[in-house]
Amino acid sequence: MSAPSWQGQIAEPTRLLLLRHGQTPLSVERRYSGHGDPDLTDLGRAQAAGAATRLGAAQAGSEPIDVIVSSPLARTRATAQAVAEAIGVPVVVHEGLIETDFGAWEGLTFAEAAERDPELHRRWLGDAEVAPPGGESFAQVAERLAATKADLLASYPGARVLAVSHVTPIKTLLRDALGVGPELLFRLHLDLASLSIAEYYPDGGSVVRLVNDTGHLQ
To answer: Tens digit of pLDDT for each residue in 154-163?
Structure first.
């Protein structure tokens, strides 16, 4: 039996290692990239390799990764596959880890979206209930990720799960683990190929152990 945590839990938590995908052409140009499916750039592949090297070294230690789950999009699957090849664990695609659907703003820059729909874009920046035209609000993403988290915890209790996803789903899971409001979505920065860690205990408790670590990219 494990020693009690600072919150008093003694059961093993399910650890979610949250890895953002590497660079794509749309991230180079700072364009909204949701359900569109660009592949990684050369730098993005190097970033994925850096994450794979880091996690491969950890795999040989005392806390190996038990399962890899990935968003279905090419940029996340390529990042996940780089890690899979390094640690010898197959990738399982989970549709719930997909990025926000930006609707008509897909592929636009911040300025282009603001010019296209100035009032809507302004409200969207501060209200999680507001959705892009034909897209998905951050509140809807939160509902999707709540179901995704529940599925992962039920499927892999007490496991160390590498979830390769996107900026909004990862922020949403961190927000959930911290028990804070939607303002976190607008104030937290996550770099490409960054690693964050959240743990969920069987009694419902949760902690965040790491946020936006990019040491493997230096």
So the answer is: 999 999 999 9
